[in-house]
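Incident log, support desk, overnight shift.

02:14 A customer reports that sequence design results differ from what the structure should imply. Their input is reproduced verbatim below. On-call engineer (initials T.W.) acknowledged and began investigating.
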């Protein structure tokens, strides 16, 4: 008897308990066994995604429409919590990345929401270092902090390259999700520059992920972690 047939023969409550202990890779493998579990896993992942969003924004449907309209993605600890299936990794701040061409679409959409307020902005647009995005800080309708990272390239993924650890190279949106360092992340391992090369905020993020998520952290020298820019 196939494994998925055995699972289908047990009560739904037990099926859910089995799902809860699977990591993301195993859960997706389960979804690939048959149409029943494909639909079931899809529903589970949408529910987990929406639960994460509701920690920062009261109506996940509204937030996802804004993301879709502006071709933006959720990154940072929220995306890590989704990929790792571990809500304890959530931070007080939601991180959203958007491309250069859609930055104003996202900012305008946020500021049209009655209960959203801008809390701050850094890195003026004229200083367009492609590796460092322009950051805006907002308060969501539930008063949660939301940091919008506006890329200086045509890709919303570029801001992730300035993340202080490989554990933060993940994203999700309304239709998809991804993990750049799958084997490392799912096995609760991460690489980061040695702490002296990080800012105070970056150190705090790296240490929090290692502590909350039980990540084994390998620290490399800055010369390895940050390769020199190519000369032109």
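02:41 Re-run completed on a clean worker. Output:
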């Amino acid at each position: 008897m196939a494994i998925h047939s055995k699972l289908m023969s047990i009560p739904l409550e037990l099926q859910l308990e089995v799902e809860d202990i699977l990591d993301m890779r195993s859960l997706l493998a389960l979804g690939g066994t048959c149409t029943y579990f494909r639909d079931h896993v899809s529903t589970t992942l949408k529910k987990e995604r929406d639960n994460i969003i509701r920690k920062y924004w009261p109506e996940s449907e509204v937030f996802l429409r804004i993301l879709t309209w502006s071709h933006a993605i959720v990154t940072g600890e929220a995306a890590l919590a989704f990929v790792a299936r571990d809500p304890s990794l959530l931070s007080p701040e939601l991180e959203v990345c958007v491309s250069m061409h859609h930055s104003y679409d996202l900012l305008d959409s946020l500021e049209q929401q009655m209960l959203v307020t801008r809390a701050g902005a850094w890195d003026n647009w004229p200083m367009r270092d492609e590796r460092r995005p322009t950051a805006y800080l907002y308060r969501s309708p539930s008063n949660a902090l939301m940091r919008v990272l506006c890329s200086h390239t045509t890709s919303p993924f570029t801001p992730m390259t300035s993340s202080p650890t490989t554990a933060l190279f993940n994203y999700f949106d309304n239709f998809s999700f991804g993990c750049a360092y799958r084997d490392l992340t799912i096995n609760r391992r991460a690489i980061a520059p040695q702490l002296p090369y990080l800012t105070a905020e970056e150190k705090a993020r790296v240490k929090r992920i290692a502590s909350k998520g039980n990540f084994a952290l390998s620290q490399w020298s800055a010369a390895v972690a940050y390769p020199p820019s190519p000369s032109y």
